[in-house]
Amino acid sequence: MTQVLDLARRLMAAPSVTPATGAVFDAMEAMLAPLGFEVTRFTRGEGATGTPEAPVENLFAIRRGPEGSKHFAFAGHLDVVPPGGGWTSEAFDPEVRGDLLYDRGAVDMDFIQAHTEGGREFRKVLEATSWEEIEAASGVTRNQIERVGNIYAQSSKTIFAWTM
User: What is the longest distance spanned by two Cα atoms in the chain?
Assistant: First the structure.
């Protein structure tokens, strides 16, 4: 799990306030290129900073497989809204507390709140759910879940994608 944690920390530590450019894209490219991805970066927009037309950097990465092989695509975003107040730690300074990694960009709650119903209430339910309940509902033990997580983290050929 250390490698996954290190990669997540590197992304979270890269300043990425909308419209994000530079550091967060440098970090993503540095992670993907050694894995054989061809990374293409480009910027669109010519307006003044702070306007909807302001320049926004984009990135896509391709890892070609053998002729005729299947393809996998991932689409997501690397930017976050400005930090605002109420944080117990500095923005872009990820830290592990217990079993969780905390920082700006770890979860885009503003996006979730704007595009879902009951997101905050659902989060409270998830946070209140014990491992015993998860095991009973899923039929899978915590040890099995953690074992699979470790297999994913150590695998060189696993595809894991998450996006909103």
Answer: 54
Q: How far apart are CA 61 and CA 39, in angstroms?
A: 4
Mean pLDDT of 8-28: 84
Neighbouring residues of 152: CB distance < 8 A, sequence distance ≥ 6: 4, 158, 160
pLDDT tens by residue, 63-119: 877 887 776 655 567 777 777 777 777 888 888 888 778 886 566 666 666 777 777
Global pTM reads 0.58
Are β-strands 95-97 and 38-44 bridged in parallel, bridged antiparallel, or unpaired?
Answer: unpaired
Alpha-carbon distance of 89 to 102, in angstroms, equals 9
**CA 31 – CA 2 distance, rounded (Å):** 14
Would you say residue 40 has pLDDT above 80? yes
* Whole-angstrom distance, CA of residue 112 vs CA of residue 117: 8
